[in-house]
Every structure is written in C-alpha cells, then in structure tokens.
Amino acid sequence: MLKFAREVRAEASRVTWPTAKETMQVTGLVLAMVVATALFFLAVDGIIGTATRALFGA
Predict the structure, then answer these.
(1) Are 26 and 18 in contact (CB under 8 A)?
(2) Which residues does 18 contact at the CB level (< 8 Å), separation at least 6?
(3) What is the DSSP letter of 16?
(4) DSSP collapsed to 3 states, 23-50
(5) Can you tell me the distance from the alpha carbon of 56 to that of 54, in angstroms, rounded to the nearest whole number?
(6) How many other CB atoms are there within 10 angstroms of residue 39's CB atom?
(7) Alpha-carbon span 40 to 38, nearest angstrom
(8) Is CB count within 10 Å lower at the N or C end of the chain?
(9) In this structure, is residue 10 part of a structural domain?
(10) Is 54 a domain residue?
(11) Centroid of chain to Cα 55
(12) In the predicted structure, residue 57 carries a pLDDT above the cut 90
C-alpha cells in the first residue's frame, strides 16, 4: 500500500496542471456549448411540436 501511494505521488508530480486562465477559458467554452446545445434542442422541440399539432389538428 505504501509503494502504491509513492507511485501515485510520483505520477501526480508529472502531471501538467492547467493554469487558472486556462481553466476559466475551458469553463467558458463548456458553458457556451451547453447554452448552444440547449437552444438547438429548444428550437427542434418547438419545430416538432408545431409539426405534430399541425398534423393531428390539436
């Protein structure tokens, strides 16, 4: 178990961690993509709903 902990620590020290600026940029990009995806599905849902109402006369 101690050997494993040492190996994990050694491996973690080799990791290149992102800077705060990089983290904020990626977070902003993820949020923008979430909003874009939500708007896309909102539009598709509206189109399908309108088509369904028109088709069935509801």
Answers:
(1) yes
(2) 26
(3) -
(4) HHHHHHHHHHHHHHHHHHHHHHHHHHHH
(5) 6
(6) 10
(7) 5
(8) N
(9) no
(10) yes
(11) 35
(12) no
Phi, psi angle pair for 16, to nearest 5°: -90, 105
Find all residues with CB under 8 Å of 58, minimum gap 6, and list them. 52
Predicted confidence band of residue 4 (pLDDT cuts 50, 70, 90)? very high
pTM, two decimal places = 0.68
Distance (Å, whole) CA 53 – CA 24: 43
What phi and psi values does residue 18 have, to the nearest 5 degrees?
Answer: -70, 150
Does residue 36 form part of some domain?
yes
Amino acid (1-letter code) at residue 46:
G
At position 25, the amino acid (one-letter code) is Q
Q: What is the pLDDT of residue 45?
A: 98
- Sole residue written with tokens 């088509």: 51
d(CA 55, CA 34): 31
